[in-house]
Amino acid sequence: MKRFSKEENSWIFYDWANSAYSIIISTAVFPLFYKAAAKNAGVSPSDSTAYLGYTVAIATFILAMLSPILGTIADYQGYKKKFFTFFFALGIIFTASLAFIPSDNWLLLLIFYTVAAIGSAGSNVFYDAFLTDVTTEERMNKVSSRGFGFGYIGSTIPFIISIAIIVLSQNGLIPLSTTFASKIAFMITAVWWGLFSIPLIKNVHQRYFIEREQKPVANSFRRLGKTLREISQYRALFLFLLAYFFYIDGVGTIITMSTAYGTDLGITATNLLIILFVTQVVAGPFAILYGRLAERFTGKKMLYVGICVYIIVCIYAYFLETTLDFWILAMLVASSQGGIQALSRAYFAKLIPKKNSNEFFGFYNIFGKFASILGPLLVGVTAQVTGDSSSGVFSLVILFIIGLTILAFVPEPKAGELDKKAII
Q1: What is the per-residue pLDDT across 376-415, written as a single tens digit (0 to 9) for each?
Q2: Distance (Å, whole) CA 87 – CA 358
Q3: How many CB atoms lie within 10 A of CB 296?
Q4: Which residue, 74, 141, 29, is CA-closest to 365?
Q5: Number of structural domains, the chain?
Q6: Does residue 1 fall inside a structural domain?
Q7: With contact defined as beta carbons under 8 Å apart, do 286 and 339 qualify?
Q8: Of 44, 13, 337, whose CA–CA distance to 196 is shortest?
């Protein structure tokens, strides 16, 4: 078995770095911190969950609008890492800044969270596009899955440290308030994210690119327009993006809203944090397993498996009553969330022309981000109308079914299919 190269390992370590943001800010500590701030301000549980959903929708809409444009420009030689670094720095700065916002100002918390989310997701657009630069098409499933697997495993370290500080403060074992302990967790996230991003910044370089030319912005818009006109001509790529639009919607929404949903069910903050920790531990090996199984059964068949698991998750969520039920739900999610994301990334990377990887991953991102607008809005509106968060999660099942149906019509990817017709 071929060992992972220095470039592959450096790329993989960014998942290790950025996943600290995903678990601590997106999923665990920040949602609980925000929910407590909103509750103290007199905001009802269903309304605060809805506002969080609307905030996620706003952040994803902004990034979705920017991604194809920035991605097209970033395909020029030397631009990819510059754009990556800008969004990476934006995310770290505003993540750290969350620690300095008054804990009773829930609206300002949401505003800073929005900017941090744009930084995190924006850096991931260019990080994903670097996959074509660091490895071969034959190894993409393995490398992409290892990235997600290491991300889940690595994120448990700052998560354990953060949760230990919070739990010790809650029990009066250290002279810190729970609020201050949560703010320390925000700082830990920023430091971890920055430290382990160094290998990518140092060792990963843009191998495939478009030569620089005069009027790069104007020519980038020209190329973007050509791509928009021609993308529907590539059946496999177009159908995959359409399927991805629907099924990744549910995946992202469940990840983002899970803690707020658990709070509404009456699960204690301590139990939620423990469940989320175990979820990360379980998700790591399963993400790597998905990559290995994809080599045997194909990535498409393993995507079928992941989507079916999420359909079961949505149905089961509607009937949740106890903490044990939430544990079972979390383990089902852990078994597939990393795998479905990793194989989707690798599946898409095999279809696109390498020198236009940023541009096409911009479209990949816009399909994913527009889907992430629909999902949180669907959960938010349903929760407010019914007064029941479980109904909001259940409503996501239709999106997985639509995605699964469309994916069935997607032809198996032919490595480098678009390289022969690369848009220049």
Answers
A1: 777 777 777 777 666 767 878 888 999 999 999 988 766 5
A2: 14
A3: 8
A4: 74
A5: 1
A6: no
A7: yes
A8: 13
pLDDT, tens digit (0-9, with 9 covering 90-100), for 193-209: 999 999 999 999 988 88
Q: Determine phi and psi for 59, rounding to 5 degrees.
A: -60, -45
Cα 331–Cα 336–Cα 339 angle in degrees, nearest 5: 145
Note the pLDDT tens digit of each residue in 68-88.
Answer: 777 777 788 888 899 999 999
Distances (CA, A) of 125 to 12, 67, 129, 213, 234: 14, 7, 6, 23, 22
Which residues have a Cβ under 8 Å from the Cβ of 219 and sit 6 or more positions away?
213
Summarised one tens digit per residue, pLDDT across range 249-270 is 888 777 766 766 777 777 887 7
Q: Indicate the DSSP class of residue 207.
A: -
Residue 160: domain span? 6-208+215-421
The DSSP secondary-structure symbol of 4 reads: P
- Only one residue has tokens 């944090």, namely 273
Nearest to 257, CA basis, from 54, 4, 21: 54
Query: Can you give the CATH number for the domain in which 168 is found?
Result: 1.20.1250.20
CB 340 within 8 A of CB 251: yes
Residue 290 region by backbone torsions, left for phi larger than 0, else alpha for psi between -120 and 50, else beta: alpha
Global model pTM greater than 0.85: no
- The answer as to whether 31 is a domain residue is yes
Q: What is the predicted pLDDT for the residue at 422?
A: 45
